[in-house]
Amino acid sequence: MLKPILAAVDVLTTVLAFVVAIAGTQFLVGRVAIDSDRRSLALLALTLPGWPAIYSHQRLYTARYVARPLEEFRRIVRSCALGLVMLALTAYITKITLSRVLVVLVFLSAVVLLMIERSIARTYFTRRRVRGQLMRPVVVVGDNAEADAITAMLENNAHLGYEVRDVVDCSGRGTDRLSVLSTVRDTLAAVHATGASGVIIAATAVDHETSNRLIRVLTDEGVHVELSSTLVDIAIHRLVVRPLGRMPVMYVQPVRRAGWRAKAKRSLDIAVASIGFVAVSPVLLVAAIAVKLDSRGPILFKQERLGRGGKLFKVLKLRTMVQDAEAKLLDLRGDNEADGPLFKMRNDPRVTRVGRLLRKFSIDELPQLWNVIRNDMSMVGPRPALPAEMAEWGADLHGRLRVKPGITGMWQVSGRSNSSFEDYERYDLYYVDNWSFLTDLAIIARTVPSVLFRKGAF
Questions:
Q1: CB atoms within 10 A of CB 256
Q2: Which residue in 42, 133, 398, 434 has its CB near the most CB atoms, within 10 A?
Q3: Which helix or strand (DSSP H or E) is residue 224 part of?
Q4: Which of 352, 362, 364 shows the shortest CA–CA distance to 325?
């Protein structure tokens, strides 16, 4: 029932995107003829049935394909691009003149509005799942550490939408053949007894003969089967399933940061930072005056941070603390509310009155736009770490120095102060290992609501 409702809302959002595009075209190129508006609306009417078909083709109504917001964003972008092709072909066949400005605005408004709509829908589904609703009942097959990790993850993260009804111990006794039959029989019994609609198999806990027999029997019964890949924190857009003889294998695409991708990232940095710096100049001016009037000390706070390859640079911030804040840090170490080398304190006595307001809306971070223009930082990347923190890093975390630090990043928009140092490490390494240009665009888009709603901010 939910899929038809979501499809209907998608269609309404598409219509709204078209209306916004027509209004935007009129604003940019002047008032167009009423007949032109009518032709555009006629084109929308002709292509309207095709839009939900495109969305369905891109698997936007299949939960397993849009589990991550970034993957949903990619599919929405591809859907809107295909929609433009459909518009162009329909316009050619019907000989309806199609404005290039209108085409661009349809694409942009459709992507933005669909992302907003899907974000609202995702929030709705998450809240229902946290209350124990809209859950998919499953049985986990496995008796090892991986099976335990899968079960714990699903039980501790209700927003994923899975309810573990039972766990099947596949350690069967007797001969290997009896073990296979026992696992299949026990799993089927657990599915029928618990009313589960799916089974998740821990790949490392089950041998290939058992898993093949189990998958054949379960899928023949109409049960949804998911098999763990044993991979952790590898973005799904890097995985390609292909045949290798009789075996399906997963090819992991290498990360490419050089060439045109590096130039595109730098161009995005310069464009966003330059436009942003000009746009926020009035805010910076008012904030600078407030900082100066509120307490003694410089307006800007400069601090050495680790850049790409471990190169040191001076990060710029509006001063939010008293002048001798760093000298007082040693006395406050015992009140640290973060784990690992990070220091966080909700009621840090060193923060000034104006500083609390600036931090509340991340205004103190705005001077870092100049760091981006100077090529010390990027708009998106790992948090710029202090040199002293590196002494407490594990070997893996040094990998974050392969890229420039960013003003915003995956950790920053994911509830930074509500997460552990383990999450900090995982988010940063996930970004570095799975970087793509679309990832940067998605994180920039998520930064504004994260700041406005103070997600994870102290």
A1: 11
A2: 434
A3: strand 224-227
A4: 352
Cα 244 to chain centroid, rounded: 32
- The residue type at 326: E
Q: Are 163 and 138 in contact (CB under 8 A)?
A: yes
Q: 51: closest CA among 10, 99, 98?
A: 10
The amino acid that residue 453 corresponds to is: F
CA separation for the pair 429, 406 (Å, rounded)? 14
Helix (H) or strand (E) holding 74: helix 69-94
Amino acid at 331: D
- Helix 2-29 vs helix 50-57: crossing angle, to nearest 10: 120
User: 291 in helix, strand or coil?
Assistant: helix
| DSSP secondary structure string for all residues of 159-180 | GG-EEEEEEE-----SSHHHHH
- Report yes or no: 377 and 407 within 8 Å, Cβ to Cβ: yes
Distance CA 286, CA 357 (A): 13
User: Residue 230: which region, alpha, beta or left (left: phi > 0; alpha: psi -120 to 50)?
Assistant: left
Instruction: Please state whether the predicted TM-score (pTM) of the whole model is above 0.85.
Output: no
Q: Which of 79-83, 160-164, 257-261, 338-342 has the lowest average pLDDT? A: 338-342
Closest alpha carbon to 313 in 297, 300, 302: 302
- Mapping DSSP to helix (H, G, I), strand (E, B) and coil, where does residue 433 land? helix
One-letter amino acid for residue 87 of the chain: L
Judge contact between 365 and 317, C-beta under 8 A: yes
SS (H, E, C) 357-390: HHHHCCHHHCCHHHHHHCCCCEEECCCCCCHHHH
pLDDT of residue 2: 72
pLDDT in tens, 129-154: 888 888 999 999 998 899 999 999 99
Each residue's pLDDT tens digit, 31-67:
544 445 677 777 778 888 899 999 999 888 887 767 7
Query: 345: Cβ–Cβ under 8 A, 6 or more apart, which residues?
Result: 332, 335, 336, 337, 458
- What is the per-residue pLDDT across 343-389, written as a single tens digit (0 to 9) for each? 666 777 788 889 888 988 889 999 999 999 999 999 999 989 889 88
Angstrom distance (rounded) from CA 307 to CA 394: 18
CA atoms of 367 and 282, how far apart (whole Å): 12
Can you give the pLDDT at residue 453?
59
Give dist(CA 250, CA 253) in Å, integer.
9
Longest pairwise C-alpha distance within the chain: 82
